[in-house]
């Protein structure tokens, strides 16, 4: 079996794993792309790699400057390891490092990840950096809108508390949306649809339509 055939076979097995299907940040395709990259650094016998080797290549390609937030998360991972790791550990630890938006601790971790200068607040310049890093390309007015949507009217910065509560509402709204789509396929759930739709409207009214961190 060729190396390519082996990798494709392993990717099929990987796609069926529960932690891949249910990852709160990365899609299955994202994880499979990571797998392709990871295999370039992994020992073919142990299937383990040194994250520090990945960072060396990233710096050579100036990815540490082009993708500051992601590189920061990878650096934290590298510092926490004293040995080579397998792919499952790599992705699951990277997910934790970036922050799971579906629980409070994860949302706080996400804030700390994007708070590059560790100021405990995010101002316009910080949002612009995040926008550039994640390729959102927000205009100056859109940056102001993000701050107002999360921090409140006339706010000039976003605090950790405002950030966490805002994401919590957005996550709840998304979960309700997912449930409504499921119930609409089943006629016996019509009463639940009406109830969920009402909750959806209430949450929608107190939440913003757009925010760059949860899409």
Structure report:
- With 215 residues, the chain is mostly helical.
- It is built from 12 helices and 4 strands, in the order αααβαααβααβααβαα.
- The protein has helices at 3-15, 18-21, 28-39, 51-60, 63-66, 68-80, 87-98, 104-114, 124-133, 140-151, 160-183, 190-206, and strands spanning 48-49, 85-86, 121-123, 157-159.
Radius of gyration, whole Å: 20 Å
Given as residue ranges, the uncertain stretches (5+ residues, pLDDT < 50) are 206-215
Strand content: under 5%
Q: What is the makeup of the main sheet?
A: 2 strands, antiparallel
If helices are DSSP runs of H or I spanning 4 or more residues, what is the number of helices?
12
How much helicity do the residues have? 55-70%
Oligomer: single chain
End-to-end Cα distance = 40 Å
Number of strands: 4
Overall pLDDT metric: 78
Shape: globular
Secondary-structure content class? mainly alpha
Strand order of the largest sheet: 1-2
Secondary-structure element order, as H and E?
HHHEHHHEHHEHHEHH
Which helices and strands, and how do they pair?
Elements: H1 3-15, H2 18-21, H3 28-39, E1 48-49, H4 51-60, H5 63-66, H6 68-80, E2 85-86, H7 87-98, H8 104-114, E3 121-123, H9 124-133, H10 140-151, E4 157-159, H11 160-183, H12 190-206
Helix pairs in contact: 1-3, 4-6, 6-7, 8-11, 11-12
